[in-house]
Design a protein that fits this description.
Blueprint lengths: L4 H11 L2 E2 L8 H14 L7 H14 L3 E5 L2 H11 L5 E4 L6 H7 L4 E4 L22 E5 L10 H11 L2 E5 L7 E2 L2 E2 L6 E5 L12 E5 L2 H10 L4 E3 L2 E2 L10 H32 L5 E3 L13 E5 L7 H10 L2 E2 L26 H9 E4 L7 H12 L3
Parallel strand pairs: 1-15, 3-4, 3-5, 5-6, 6-9
Antiparallel strand pairs: 2-10, 7-8, 9-10, 11-12, 13-14, 14-16
Helix pairs in contact: 2-8, 3-8, 4-5, 4-7, 8-11
The structure holds pyridoxal-5'-phosphate.
């Protein structure tokens, strides 16, 4: 019987630290039966039973017709571009995670950055047309923080210029608009199930597609291009999700509604607590009917006593690890900054947002007391 005090004290110290996100994990004992099934079937990958089950269950949960699972979201983005045979130039946003544009470079495609809308921080449809050239073949927008792009305006431009639309929907799991799932827009949408996302399978991703034929091509492309034992139709990649990840996804689906409800509560609490703080602007809600509260972003305005970076550092001194999503802009990284469209003058809104926005901790296992502590730190700055 060792005294529990010292280890208790250590635990408390560690648990005082709040990161921007914490992966959602169900109780371990709930996962054991899934593992036993895999151990007894000895099917570890290659579209096994959990993979098939999870594809069907996700289609049903998300309200989409077809979906192909991937080992991660980046491989799904790379493959989505190949499935539609995209070449030349693709119009995209600089205000995103770097994988959005990397997927273009991996396909030998030139990214063309277009500025974002100041309210949604999504690709500004009014600026897309001016960036179209004879080489443009597609648009790759991002539903930033899970708030829907102006999908109607984007589709109209795509139709006028005969362009494909591939949405990087890595933030948009479960988001619904008036017309159903936000994932049903464009030609393809891509999800990420990375540990830091709203819904995780440790690592994972998916392509949502409108018809069975496209799904079949994607299924071939993620399996080296194999159609059958002796036929290879394309230089496909190994993008397959394993049975362990798919089984874990099946378990996560049982918990996702609870996790989303918790996030909604913290979103409301942040908005209420920060409403009266001068110089802090919570991003307004988007056009969605059902939100997923994937991130909680605030904008640090000029009339706040300190700037965004000083607030970020101040938080660290209080053991709160907020994140500057998205700073630097994708267009500022060395492999992109030489592009004509990467010029700061071309991207004033994104540049400004990148200097002012801070994402506060947001995850299902946060507590109301922790949200209060975070808001107290902000309100305490004079
Ligand atoms: C997380 C993320 C990705 C990459 O997904 P992975 O599953 O980590 O490969 C791509 N785009 C955006 C916007 C993301 O946030």
């Amino acid at each position: 019987m060792t005294a529990s005090l010292p280890s208790q004290a250590t635990t408390n110290l560690v648990s005082d630290r709040i990161y921007v996100t914490q992966p959602y994990l169900p109780p371990l004992n709930e996962f054991l039966p899934y593992l036993e099934e895999i151990w007894s079937s000895k099917v570890l990958t290659n579209a096994g039973p959990f993979h098939q089950q999870f594809e069907r269950a996700l289609c049903e949960y998300l309200g989409v017709p077809h979906l192909s699972l991937f080992a991660n979201g980046t491989l799904a983005l790379v493959t989505a571009l190949q499935a539609l045979r995209i070449t030349g130039e693709v119009i995209t946003t600089p205000y995103s995670f770097v994988a959005t544009a990397h997927s273009l470079l991996w396909n030998g495609i030139k990214p063309v950055f277009v500025d974002v809308d100041p309210n949604t921080l999504n690709l500004d449809p009014a600026r897309i047309e001016a960036a179209i050239t004879p080489q443009t073949t597609a648009i790759m927008p991002v539903h930033c923080y899970g708030r829907p792009c102006n999908v109607d305006a984007i589709q109209k431009i795509a139709d006028n210029y005969n362009l494909k639309v591939i949405y990087d929907a890595a933030h948009a799991f479960g988001v619904q608009t008036e017309n159903g799932s936000v994932l049903s827009n464009g030609d393809l949408s891509v999800l990420s199930f990375h540990a830091t996302k709203v819904f995780n399978t440790f690592e994972g991703g998916a392509i949502i597609c409108p018809d069975a034929k496209t799904k079949q091509r994607i299924d071939h492309l993620k399996n080296f291009g194999f159609v059958d034992e002796v036929t290879v139709v394309a230089p496909g990649i190994n993008g397959k999700m394993s049975e362990i990840n798919a089984a874990f996804g099946m378990l996560q689906l049982k918990h996702i509604d609870h996790a989303l409800a918790r996030r909604a509560d913290f979103d409301a609490q942040y908005r209420e607590r920060l409403a009266g703080v001068r110089g802090i602007r919570c991003l307004p809600k988007g056009s969605e009917k059902v939100a997923n509260h994937a991130y909680f972003a605030i904008q640090v305005e000029d009339d706040f006593p300190i700037d965004r970076d000083a607030l970020y550092d101040h938080f660290k001194q209080h053991d709160i690890y907020a994140r500057r999503y998205f700073y630097p802009l994708i267009s500022e990284f060395p492999m992109y900054r030489g592009l004509p469209s990467a010029n700061k003058e071309n991207l004033p809104v994104a540049t400004q947002a990148s200097r002012r926005i801070l994402c506060l901790p947001m995850f299902a296992d946060l507590t109301a007391a922790q949200v209060d502590r975070i808001c107290d730190v902000i309100a305490g700055i004079k």
